[in-house]
Amino acid sequence: SVTSIGGCAFIDCSSLEEVIIPSSVTSIGDESFSKCSSLKKIKIPSSVYFIGGQAFLGCLVMKEVIFEEPSCLTKIGNNAFSGCISLEKMSLPMTVNSIGGYSFYFCKSLKQISLPSSIITITGQLFSGCSSLTQMSIPYSVTSICDYSFFRCSSLKQISIPSSVTSIGICAFN
Length: 174
What we know:
Layout: E1 4-5, E2 18-20, E3 27-28, E4 41-44, E5 50-51, E6 64-67, E7 75-76, E8 89-91, E9 98-99, E10 112-114, E11 121-122, E12 135-137, E13 144-145, E14 158-160, E15 167-168
Parallel strand pairs: 1-3, 2-4, 3-5, 4-6, 5-7, 7-9, 8-10, 11-13, 12-14, 13-15
């Protein structure tokens, strides 16, 4: 049975609309589904502990990412969902403790996302260009909000920053 999806495995499969990832898969490699411009939604099995950088970059019509519970996911690589312009909401599993920079860069339809309480750093440009994001509740585990984290989030009306945050980078909320 398949245990990992290698880097670039399905890159640029522009007609691919649906993928059923077997529960035997534990990792999704870098750029695995990058530029699958017809992929509508993806269900991440609970067995997956790692999503690589640019894994779903540029999946233009993907509206939904579902994480099967209980999840083993701990790390999301840089640019993982960058440019998913139709992605509207996401609820990250509580097991995630690392989200790479630019992971939701220019997800301009993203209105709602919940961050797990295990996150310590809001990485650089994490939500940059998420122009539909209206509110954000930062978990108490966060100590650092890096440069340009919420850059060009023009609809952001409410943000809750806990007292645990000790540094806010340049142009973090510009």
